[in-house]
Design a protein that fits this description.
Largest sheet: 7 strands, mixed
CATH topology of the largest domain: Beta Polymerase, domain 2
CATH superfamily of the largest domain: CorA soluble domain-like
Membrane topology: Multi-pass membrane protein
CATH class of the largest domain: Alpha Beta
Radius of gyration: 37 Å
Protein name: Magnesium transport protein CorA
Function: Mediates influx of magnesium ions. Alternates between open and closed states. Activated by low cytoplasmic Mg(2+) levels. Inactive when cytoplasmic Mg(2+) levels are high.
Distance between the termini: 113 Å
Number of strands: 7
CATH architecture of the largest domain: 2-Layer Sandwich
Main location: membrane
Structural class: alpha+beta
Pfam family, one: CorA
Helix content: 40-55%
Order of helices and strands: HEEHEHHEEEEHHHHHHH
Strand order of the largest sheet: 2-1-3-7-6-5-4
Shape: rod-shaped
């Protein structure tokens, strides 16, 4: 009798047919992949141990039931939508703020959702370079989004710079600051970002001084493209620093029901520093606008000088050309044709007139 064999699904599939890859967006990446750090703070001191975001909040609520002042600080770096939504579900974050935190590219702003504040900060980093002429980028920007509630701080960072490890280390070693609560962490982050603004503005000022010296130097050539590069970077800084003033002012004066008087006092100090940085950036923008006009004037002057030199050499060359053109017409009755010294005399006249024109133009600074 013939034998029958059960065919496997792989035997029924054509040999040249590829198995479709699963949709990458459907793969769930755990929050831990985007989590930089997660710490639980009780009475200003960080508790030992590692926590997930859900376990950390549960620990905080447990401590609060024991009348211990506690909060959790979780830091994320460029989370995707699922990771951010997982955190939002635990901490009760508003969906509009969550969307902003995922997609980034936001202006500095402050929003309030019930008892949660959402602050957007733009970070800036100075890109080291040998000179502006060889630089392709001078300032690089990133973002930090901060969610602050009564018992939690969630920071979301975008960009390769602007890490908050130094801020967290300082807070961990100063329990008195942490004891002020989550809004003290908000102040520490804002203070760190704004202080870095001042450092970057000092470095950019050095580039502007070098460019100013180059523009007003009589021996160097001015490339307006380099000034435009600096101006573009200053405009990027202005977009990062300027709008933050309003958000910080609101933090320092409003939301009395959320932020303590002591923390608001510290935030007003950050406002002063940010105003100082904003004024510097605005002055840099004005200086560069003036440098553009000066460079354009210098280029126009150089072009006028070049045209005068060209005109002078054309005038000098026109004399022998005209004389040679006249005697090249080959008429029979022309003066000095039969004179023995006519030819050298014409050459001598050409040389004398051209020399006279040359020294005249030199005396008038045309050559």
């Amino acid at each position: 009798m013939p034998s029958f064999r059960t065919l496997q699904p792989s035997m029924l599939r054509p040999a040249n047919r590829r198995i479709p890859d699963p949709d990458a967006s459907a793969i769930h990446v755990p929050v831990a992949r985007a989590m930089v750090d997660c710490g639980v703070y009780a009475d200003g001191k960080r508790l030992p141990g590692k926590y997930t975001h859900a376990a950390a909040l549960a620990k905080v609520r447990e401590l609060q039931r024991e009348d211990v002042k506690a909060f959790v600080w979780i830091g994320l770096h460029e989370p995707d939508e699922r990771q951010m939504q997982s955190v939002a579900d635990v901490f009760g974050l508003h969906e509009l703020a969550v969307e902003d935190a995922v997609h980034a590219h936001q202006r500095p702003k402050l929003e309030r959702y019930d008892n949660t504040l959402f602050l957007v900060l733009k970070t800036i980093m100075y890109v080291e370079h040998e000179s502006v002429a060889k630089a392709r980028e001078i300032v690089e920007t990133g973002e930090i989004m901060i969610f602050v509630g009564q018992d939690f701080v969630v920071t979301v960072r975008h960009g390769d710079h602007g890490g908050l490890a130094a801020v967290r280390k300082r807070m961990d070693t100063t329990p008195a600051s942490c004891a002020l609560g989550p809004y003290a962490v908000l102040h520490a982050i804002a203070d760190h970002v704004v202080d870095h603004y001042l450092e970057v503005t000092d470095l950019v000022e050095t580039d502007i001084d070098a460019m100013e010296e180059n523009v007003f130097s009589a021996t160097s050539e001015t490339d307006i493209e380099h000034i435009y590069l600096l101006k573009r970077e200053v405009v990027e800084m202005r977009r990062a620093v300027g709008p933050l003033n309003l958000a910080l002012q609101r933090l320092g004066t409003d939301h009395n029901d959320l932020i303590s008087k002591e923390v608001r006092r510290y935030i007003r100090d950050v406002v002063d520093h940010n105003t100082q940085a904003s004024d510097r950036v605005a002055s840099y923008d004005e200086v560069l606008s003036s440098l553009v006009q000066a460079a354009v004037g210098k280029v126009s002057m150089q072009q006028n000088m070049d045209m005068r030199k060209i005109s002078a050499w054309v005038a000098i060359a026109a004399v022998p050309t005209a004389i040679a053109g006249i005697y090249g017409m080959n008429f029979e009755h022309m003066p000095e044709l039969a004179w023995t010294f006519g030819y050298p005399m014409v050459l001598l006249v050409m040389a004398a007139v051209c020399s006279g024109l040359y020294f005249t133009f030199r005396r008038n600074h045309w050559l």
